[in-house]
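Good morning,

Attaching, inline, the backbone tokens for the sequence recovery test we're adding to the shared suite. The designed sequence is right after.
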């Protein structure tokens, strides 16, 4: 059975269908730039961001590496504890900020949930909040990087 054959989901009451795009399914079944607990213990990173709450559901952690000039995000590794939409959103975010040699920090700070949603070809309305966590986690990691580098904090949640 191929991943295209997996049925989309219905809400518990069955009154609403949740359609997941092929892009969301691809990032859920084959996440990009995920890092395991074993790998993270030896991973050298420049910034760490975490958002969400284990008590209420989705938690996202991202680790970033910045290029030598301090301009671009050259790596973004992540762990997400949550639903398919949260996992796919974080996976896509990691691709967006590292493709084409890495995204400049200034541009990464301008990323919004709608940018992630667009690249995923959408999410069910009830799952849109998952893309919000991704951009907040990235901002938190950039903030951590800048604090470590300059002693300054530029992002307040």
């Amino acid at each position: 059975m191929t991943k295209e054959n997996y049925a989309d989901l219905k809400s518990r009451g069955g009154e609403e269908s949740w359609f997941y795009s092929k892009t969301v399914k691809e990032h859920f079944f084959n996440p990009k730039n995920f890092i395991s607990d074993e790998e993270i213990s030896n991973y050298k990173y420049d910034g760490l961001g975490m958002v969400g709450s284990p008590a209420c559901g989705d938690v996202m952690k991202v680790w970033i590496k910045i290029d030598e000039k301090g301009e671009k995000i050259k790596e973004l590794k992540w762990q997400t504890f949550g639903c398919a939409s949260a996992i796919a959103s974080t996976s896509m975010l990691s691709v967006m900020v590292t493709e084409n040699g890495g995204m400049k920090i200034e541009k990464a700070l301008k990323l919004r949930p709608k940018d992630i949603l667009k690249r995923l070809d959408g999410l069910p309305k009830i799952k849109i909040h998952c893309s919000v966590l991704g951009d907040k986690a990235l901002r938190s990691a950039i903030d951590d990087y800048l604090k470590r580098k300059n002693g300054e904090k530029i992002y307040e949640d």
